[in-house]
Write a structure and sequence with these properties.
alpha/beta; FAD/NAD(P)-binding domain; 2 domains; 7-stranded mixed sheet; 10 helices; flavin adenine dinucleotide binding; Auxin_biosynth/cation_transpt; oxidoreductase
Length: 430
Amino acid sequence: MSNEQTTKPHYPVIVIGAGQAGLSISYFLKQLQIDHLVLEKNTLMHGWKNERWDAFTLVTPNWQCDLPGHPYDGDDPKGFMTRDETIGYLERFAAKVNAPVREGVSVNSVETDADGVYQLCTSHGDFSADQVVVASGGYHIPVIPRMAERVPQAVFQMHSAQYKNADQFPEGAVLVVGSGQSGAQIAEDLHLSGRKVFLATGNAPRVSRFYRGKDVVEWLDDMGYYQISVNEHPLGKNVRNNTNHYVTGRDGGRDIDLREFAKEGMELYGLMSEFDGENLIFQPNLADNLNKADATLNNINARIDAWIEKQGIETEEGPSIYTPVWELQQERTSLNLADSGITSILWCIGFRPDFAWLDAAVFNGQGHPKHERGVTQQPGLYFIGLPWLHTWGSGRFSGVRQDAEHLAHQIERYQAQVKSGANAKDAVTA
């Protein structure tokens, strides 16, 4: 190794990202007494503090929060933490872990040298490491379609990552594009604030908040769903592409029913596909989107019914099937922007990953890393905190602990191989 390389600060492990995933892996590395450094381009819990709206709540009950050494510590386990309560929970976790974090350090590139050692170029100098854990998540670049460039400048546009509350928008109606978890909840938030809302729906499914006397999450936990690994799931790794079910923890938790919003004056459309300079163009699939979302809700409830019957569980509430409270009379595929009263568009169509800084042959055609429970085919390179890394809870507070513990032991094993004299590039993680 050259003199230039030996002058760089070297660590056995460098973790990139100091959210709950990065701090979770740091927790276990500290337990194993493995020297490491955590690099964070912003500040601890930046996303939670700066990229959540004011009325945000968790959509999973508080009892599912089980970070390493830090299970839920409040007095409402069946409730749903607000944005501020979630930040407080995470700050207490960070204080417990006391990870070796350097904040404000952007990682510009990561590559391996001839010896298989990782070379990191950052905004605060160069580092090297035997192993690297990428804990920066998979939601990096907000998706805004090219059609947005053709919308008149007089129309205010924003991505969901920037949304805080209705006061950010000028007077007038708001078009929310996307009905996934964020889109559905933000559309409700704007609707409750008194705004006229137009909602361009997608194919996101929905789920009941409560059913037959319990939170549906509690039923699914009893049924073992959250313990199923990605390799055991009927969809296999394709489940990672699924859109999350929309539901809310707001005001103690409730269903989100877009049909109910329509009854109250929200205007619903199918998938938005184009803006032709004057008209917003939508696919004629609103009825299909609503019907499929309801079918998913009914299917999940039917599985719970079957579980209740199989286990002989006594419940006060019997089986039920959701009956639509509003029916579409006619598909509308065009809306004149000038005549609609829409003065703002909120894009809620997700994010795409950006790992361009990481020089490693571990990505698929969509830019997502290929791995087995966070372990890639490149020796010493790992990912954590991604949806369905291993189970449903991998990208949430409920499953990251198990993933972090698993990876920490993989890292320990690999480190032992490197210390035994094997080249890093030749050491193979078992």
